[in-house]
Amino acid sequence: MVMRPGIGMIKGTAAAMAALAGVSAFAGASFAGMGQPSPKQMKFQDAATPIAEQVHWFHDYVTAIIVVITLFVLGLMIYTMWRFSEKRNPVPSKTSHNTTIEIIWTVVPVLILVAIAIPSFRLLYNQYTYPPPDVVIKATAHTWNWTHEYPDQKITIDSVMLQDSERAEVIKAGMPANQVPRNLAVDNEIVVPVNKVVHVLVTSSDVIHNWTIPSFASKVDAVPGRITATWFKPLKEGIFFGQCSELCGKDHAFMPIAVRVVKEQVYNDWVAALKARDRKKAKDIIKSAAIELDGAMKTAESGAIVNK
Ligand SMILES: [Cu+2]
After folding, report:
1. Helices 7-20 and 50-83 meet at what angle, rounded to 10?
2. 208 CA → ligand 1 middle, Å
3. How far is the CA of 213 from the centre of ligand 1 (A)?
4. Is there a single domain that holds both residue 117 and residue 164?
5. Is residue 34 part of a domain?
6. How many domains does the chain divide into?
7. Which H or E element spans position 256?
8. Are residues 285 and 252 in the same domain?
9. What is the pLDDT of residues 198-237, one digit of tens each?
């Protein structure tokens, strides 16, 4: 049995709490990008998987609780300094115990911790409950690039970060520039189908690295001699970037991961092209998916303008 929190219901509670805490200004605004960082980003990168949505909800929920507690303690301190200063309260009370208040300040924090623990354990449970996979990928980290194998399809893909000159070439050849971000774009993206469960088995050939895609809320260490794992179910098509997130050496910052989420048919075509060892066709499939995505994004943007 897979437990699923009633996201709609708890989202409402979170929104109310966020508004209460005065952080609602950030709740609706989108300062983050989908699949990659954006200028002046304030929040997480947009969520593209159910787990990432739950992580973001939990973050907002705990933030709201923190804000309320902080404001309460601040208010209490300011009031105490004002009300019980020597001037206003020259003869201090000798009270040393008050049973009622002691029960309150023990029980209320316990209730707050329980209110945090329940959704926290639910999130952990969901993160570590692997639905049956539609696609399995084995990611092997090297200093400093990634190899992704699809064991069922017998495909191996080496991904190396594009240098500036290579980026310029790729953009000139027709790739939309915003899908080839500097220090994130790689020569060979990996491709997965949308709305399918992908298991990623992660290991390393040398030192400890980390396989991360922020928009998927996937992050797991790549440990030499061991297999660790993560899973994601992308709900949106697009290109999603991540970086090695474990300090691993001089080029730690330059071993990005690029996952392209496409329609199932496009994924099947890409797999077929690679199985036929037709790397050029596989790259063309990625490029046309990129151009289609660019068109869809522009339509969405102009649609938003029309709607205003
Ligand atoms: Cu690394």
Report:
1. 30
2. 7
3. 14
4. no
5. no
6. 2
7. strand 256-262
8. yes
9. 999 999 999 999 999 999 999 999 999 999 999 999 999 9
